[in-house]
Amino acid sequence: MQNNKKLVIGNWKMNPETSKEAEKIFTNISKGLKNTKKTSVVMCPPYVFIERLSKIKSSKVSLGAQNAFYEKSGAYTGEVAFSMLENLKVKYVILGHSEMRARGETNLEINKKIRSVLSAGMAPVLCVGEIERDANHEYLNLIQNQITECLSGLSKNNISCLIIAYEPVWAIGKGAVREATGEEFREVSIFIKKVLSDKFKNSNVRILYGGSVHPQNSLEFLTEGNADGFLVGRDSLDPKKFLEIINITENL
Ligand code: PGA
């Protein structure tokens, strides 16, 4: 059943500035969720806010992390282990975000992280997407390569709880070249399902859309794009907008 639900994940990136603000946004979203039946809602705050948010009682929002490191413990300055997150009720981990890839993260590292997330019993949210589009559809080869390398050595069983977020880099953030269309998402989503089906005989993985998701364009991605949900950046920091997006998935 869980897999039939839409999944809306918020990615706060390096925001907000204080844990008080984080608690306020999180609580407002949780309170606003009332009778959400068809949508699972996840929020991925910066690490330092996770513990405080995990203690909020009867929250309807699950917690996710924006990254983590594949080793369990040891001399890895600045890193956080997946097992540490597991203890804080974290259920999802975003991996391979384009902002991490831009700072040097490789498919090989993402692969190691996905394996660790799975062995800690959490769900990896693997981000894939091209920096720019070309008329020859080379970007599809790049996406195929990202998926193949990031999921190297995994089995059909392993990927049963995997989530993929297609995030075209050109459509992300304030500096986006333009917004993507539902049709553009659908093309890539079908392609990703084919890659997974060829490699794993599994095409049931949920494919989310991410990149300038707003209340105004979310319906198009769900109807024309057939998206299984969203990875939302900026609008996940605004309870009103985030709740509007969830309302749209609920009323589909
Ligand atoms: P955005 O970010 O919604 O602010 O474009 C999306 C993301 O980077 O995941």
How would you sum up the major sheet? 8 strands, parallel, barrel
Structure classification: alpha/beta
The total count of strands amounts to: 8
Strand content: 15-25%
Strand order of the largest sheet: 1-2-3-4-5-6-7-8
Helical segment count: 9
Kindly report how far apart the N and C termini lie: 17 Å
The residue ranges in which pLDDT falls below 50 over 5 or more consecutive positions are: none
Q: How large, in whole angstroms, is the Cα Rg?
A: 17 Å
Query: What would the average pLDDT be, to the nearest integer?
Result: 96
List key phrases describing it.
eight-stranded parallel β-barrel; binds 2-phosphoglycolic acid; 252 residues
What topology emerges from the helices and strands here?
Blueprint lengths: L5 E6 L7 H14 L6 E6 L2 H8 L7 E4 L16 H5 L3 E6 L2 H4 L5 H13 L3 E6 L9 H13 L12 E4 L15 H19 L5 E5 L4 H9 L5 E4 L6 H12 L2
Parallel strand pairs: 1-2, 1-8, 2-3, 3-4, 4-5, 5-6, 6-7, 7-8
The structure holds 2-phosphoglycolic acid.
Q: Can you walk me through this structure?
A:
With 252 residues, this protein is of the alpha/beta class. Helix content is 38%, strand content 16%. An eight-stranded parallel β-barrel has the order 1-2-3-4-5-6-7-8, surrounded by six helices. The protein is globular. The two termini are 17 Å apart. The mean pLDDT is 96. Bound molecules: 2-phosphoglycolic acid. The site of 2-phosphoglycolic acid (PGA) has 12 residues, from β8.
